[in-house]
Amino acid sequence: MPFTRWAAMLALCAGTASAQQKPDTLVLTRADAIRLALDRNPQLDVAREQIAQLRAVKVQAAAIPDPAVTASLDQQPGLFRSSASGQKNIGATLQLPFPNKIRLRGNVAGADVKSAEANYTALQQQIAALTSEQYDSLLVALKHRADLTEAQTLTSDFLKRTQARFDAGTAPRLDVIKAQVDVAGATNDLISNQRTITDARAALNRFMGRPLGAPIVTTDSLVVPPALPSVEVLEAAALNARPELAGLTAERAGAHSATTLAREFWLPDLTLGVSRDVSGNSGPGVFSTGLAIPFPLLFWQHTKGEVSQSEHRERELAATYRDLEAQVAEDVRDAYSAASTALRQAIYIRDELLPSAREAYRSTAASYAIGGSSAFEVIDARRTLLDAESQYADALASANTSRSDLERAVSVPLSTIVPGTNP
């Protein structure tokens, strides 16, 4: 008895610990999923740490060198040998770069920080678009499950009616077998759909930084998105808002500061020093100060070296900026074309195809009930309806996903832009 009691207590404790470790069910909208992804996604953590590193580099670039303290034994008879006639000197030196050089170095490093911040913004927008896409993938998998569940119910009802007609002698045995096969197919489709839901939920959890098997309950639904603004308006908005262009603008500013810094090779860096002889036999200590101003005599080495390199870097970035503008415009137009096409398809299936398929199945099923249609016609009509519903779910997901990608391409919420005509 005591052993049995202890075993039961251990099992209870283990069950309690397992229940405590199980992640809670997360109920969230699409906006909630995006917000969690932007807060917990490890890729954004990496980008934030890289920005922090560049900010530290900026501090180093604008820093004044530390002073150096020196001690020397002069006029000694041997290495590391002191004598009464020798000198013992202690000194300090400080190297001061020309003030404008410090400012320009800070500008160059600051441009790297701004460029990294722009890349971070672009990564945020990419993560948001991908999270929205995964959310829609989960929604469409759930909608497929609802459609397949309805199909399973319809096939089961059809099997019952066919069995009843067979028992009454008004339907052949083959119709019953075909109805049974149809029920089995609907069941297998549901089993396959469960794997799709599991994969979609795991992908969404990964973007949100949660355990892959954590349960999720979605509250949004797939609907036909609103009309799109004109592509010209979207293209103009993208050219003003895309973070890649802002990052490249910061790089160009940094390259210009680097060119200015390279051209100031003739400005002197000051070196100040002070020393004192502390030898005991030379009377009171004597101070001495010095000023060293280097002068670049071989100036052409600078003009054809770092100055030329920096100037060509500026021209390279200018050409890159023009090409990036064209890429942004092309990206917007490609995303607009995909979003517009997906929206038209969703509207067509909703308004034309789906009502026709539902009416065809309803009339065929009603005709079969009174002996007017064959089992083949009912099964074919039901499959047609299921295919139309599946196409509609996929079209809704495509319309919403392509709209999210268009927002990513424009870098501005489409709800803030006045829509144009329907596509």
The dominant shape is elongated
* Helix run count: 10
Average pLDDT confidence is 84
The main pleated sheet reads as: 4 strands, antiparallel
Helicity range: 55-70%
- CATH superfamily caption: Outer membrane efflux proteins (OEP)
| Quaternary structure of the protein | single chain
Kindly estimate the percentage of residues that lie in beta strands according to DSSP: 5-15%
**Main sheet: which strands, in order across?**
2-3-5-6
User: Which structural category fits the helices and strands?
Assistant: alpha+beta
Sequence of secondary-structure elements = HEHHEEHHEHHEEHHH
What does this 3D model show about the protein?
- 69% of the residues lie in helices and 9% in strands.
- It has 10 helices and 6 strands, in the order αβααββααβααββααα.
- The chain has a single domain, classed as Outer membrane efflux proteins (OEP), CATH 1.20.1600.
- The strands form 2 sheets. The chain has a 4-stranded antiparallel β-sheet, with no helix packed on it. It has a two-stranded parallel sheet with strand order 1-4.
- By secondary structure, the chain is of the alpha+beta class.
